[in-house]
Amino acid sequence: MRMIMFFLVGLLVHVIFFISIFDIYFTSPLVHGMAPQVSPLPPPASRLLLVVADGLRADSLYKPDANGSTRAPYLRSVMEETGSWGVSHTRVPTESRPGHVALIAGFYEDVSAVAKGWKENPVEFDSVFNESRHTWCWGSPDILPMFAKGASGDHVYTYTYPAEREDFASTDASRLDTWVFDEVKSFLQSARVNSSLMSSLQKDQNVFFLHLLGIDTNGHAHRPMSQEYLENIRLVDSGVKELVSMVEDLFGNDGRTAYVFTSDHGMTNWGSHGAGHPSETLTPLLVWGAGVHTAQRVTEPQKYSDGYLQEWQLEGLRRVDVNQGVLPLQYLNNSDQFKAESMYSNAIQILEQFKVKYNMEDNNIELLTISLCRSLIGHALEGLSYYHTYDRFFLGCSVVLGFTGWTSYVVLVILKTHVSSKTLWWMGVGATLLIGMFLIIQRSPVTYYIYCLLPVPVWYSMLHVAVCAYVPTSTHSSLQLKQGLPLLNQMISWTTLGSSLFVPLLSSTRLFHRLLSIFLSLTATYLLLSTGSEALFPPVLSWLMFVWINIEQEAMLSQGISGRQELSTLDFSENIDITKIRQLKLDDIRRSYFFVFFIITAFFGTGNIASINSFDPASVYCFLTVFNPFIMGGLMMWKVPHPTHKHTTMSYHMKVHYRVDSGMLHFFFLVQDYGSWLDIGTSISHYVIVMSMTIFLMLLSLMTHILTSGRVSLWRTRKMHFP
Fold first, then answer.
1. Judging by DSSP bridges, how do beta strands 47-53 and 206-212 pair with one another?
2. Within 13 A of 535's CA, how many CA atoms are on the CB side?
3. Where would I find the H helices in 486-643?
4. Residue 321: CB partners within 8 Å, gap ≥ 6?
5. Cα(418)–Cα(708) distance, integer angstroms
6. CA geometry: angle at 575 spanning 571 and 576, to 5°?
7. 149-171 confidence digits (pLDDT tens)
8. Using CA atoms, how far apart are residues 287 and 329, in angstroms rounded to an integer?
9. Burial of residue 455 (number of CB atoms within 10 Å: 0-12, 13-18, 19+)
């Protein structure tokens, strides 16, 4: 009981240490209470039509097909005649929420937003939608609500389809985009007979937002090179063409509508996103209409050396790349005065944020030139950073004291555990009692029932592994035929997951029987989460660990000192061979290194926990196909550190624990809250990996203690004794 309490306290301490980095490094940089700043000059457009094709790669849109023809003829004509184009560079993590926030709110979210997923705002932020007169949105229920929540007034209207339609096993996910186009066309047609709606549409500062999720869903389900993904692009192109025609006709071709077509992120060839591969970070950007430059022909080579212009056959059209969330002046077809006023408003807006942070009330500053505006922005950002990190040193010192205190406590526990002479005495008494009980049991024939029942849970787990090997194959075939996830396969998968930690408790606590039962139970779950040859990893690793266990047992038996006797418990007043002492030291170091090797191999053998945000949803298709980020993410988090528990490794946990704690301090000071998302994510990943390993070691020890020492009896029988 004391051991379990020790593990629980240690787990709580490390969870607190883990959460501390979000209070120290990753509090939201947003401030509230500023007055919105606007340019005094009238904007060139009265309305904006924003179309975001979720998951659309730049090359999928721009690159001609094998026949040399384009998949999106209308958008291609916009690039060649009426609009400007380029590549929008996203940041890691390449997910839907941060991509849309960068596009619509103009800032990159801090890491704290991850805790709220896609559906809520950890802090309320301003956006283009909030500053508009009216905004009408159509699309996914995962994206639209986060911009409607917190908007001042009731001028942001959202129209979404049911979440159940976001099914990766759907016969055709392009119907999600068809629904959006149909709803928008119906909305525009209704305005012709609804005078109140038409009056609202005729006003300025209106936004129409279309979120198209079909391409992303088809990419996850069928991969970006599939016919479903490419045909979805054609559907979107024709839908945009028809929609633009209706908008221009509704407003009498007044030339006051601006159009933006882009994507929040791309997708890898294997159908995932979240990391920083160019296929994930390069997205298309097309802008045309009011206030935008038309297509510009060039004859000289452009500054881009990535080779895409030649591959896409666009060398003769001016390409303007942007960073997602940053509006470049090269796209604007307006006067220098308008551009200068826009930069001035931007500078004043950032200065207002600094005032709120500094708690200032009045500060009259006159800015006369664009260069002075840029200088002011730099100083204001420095001030924001200073006050944002004001308490970091104090909190960091507190965490360091906590780390060192916990490490010292662990060392004391280790010393107390090893120097206690009563431990060996109780172990001897316990072994004597167990041997005595065993001899008594041998006199009772009823125990034969026990020996006969022992293989039952083991063999049950083996008929189980075979079923779990068949379920992914059956599920894959069903999805290939577009028949959805079979209900029987889904029930088997969830039942297997729920019983995987309970079934081993039915087997004997003898080492081999219990380890075999644990291996079979957990392998069954891992098979259901596997997508290919990775299913061979647990059996190979388990076989290697079993061989290591046997080698260690042989080595311990060959020593002159008891195999369970540790170096720190030897009585050095006796005459002990110094060679044996040296050998014990070497063996202790060797076992610790082997322990760390097996933990790291099991943790990183088939996937990197730092890239969990770019997981392949195909891994969870045996459990569900309808998009649910929390359940899918939870299943992936269960798969990556999937436990391979061995009874003999438990004794080594405390020996390496303090070494891992010292590593945590090192990575704690290397956490960054500046630079690119990739730099920030890498620093967080290092700290989280080391912290997770410590927490994982503690949970591993606790689960090992339960799984190897506990046993569940489903029934009791009265013991009968015979003469």
1. parallel
2. 20
3. 487-499, 511-528, 537-558, 578-604, 629-639
4. 86, 87, 88, 89, 304
5. 22
6. 75
7. 656 668 999 999 998 888 877 77
8. 13
9. middle
